[in-house]
């Protein structure tokens, strides 16, 4: 009928973590109890798709001591909200219509205006993320002519780049 808070005690049995809850003593004959449990479990990143709980009801009644057990599998789902932020420095670049790059020059300014693109990938949680892939396509050619000349590529925060584009192929 009413709701009561259970008194539960965590302990270790045979290498397993056990939570022992006292439901009622003495309990009236024919009593029905519904128990709802909320668990906070950390370190589920490597648990796979589900976590298994073994629940057992033990009675201390000497006349009818039952030890009913049941196994419950709870699906584990990681959830993370990823956010990609980007900016270009300068934000707007306009080349004069009469501008041409200087062939053979090793000065970067003779090949165009320097533009730096910065991308930040943020995990807004609640779960951690590992093994994320970000695919970034950079248009380097337009109509058979150089649109963007890639000088360098850098990363921070333990990220790795694969399938690198041709960087500074003319050694500017």
UniProtKB/TrEMBL annotation:
Keyword field: Glycoprotein, Integrin, Membrane
Keyword match Ion transport: no
GO molecular function annotations of the record: integrin binding
Membrane topology summary: Single-pass type I membrane protein
Major localisation: membrane
Gene Ontology terms: biological process: angiogenesis; cell adhesion mediated by integrin; cell-cell adhesion; cell-matrix adhesion; integrin-mediated signaling pathway
Superkingdom as given in the UniProt entry: Eukaryota
Coiled coil region boundaries: none
Residue span, Integrin alpha third immunoglobulin-like domain: 83-169
Keyword presence, Membrane: yes
Name of the protein this chain belongs to: ITA2B protein
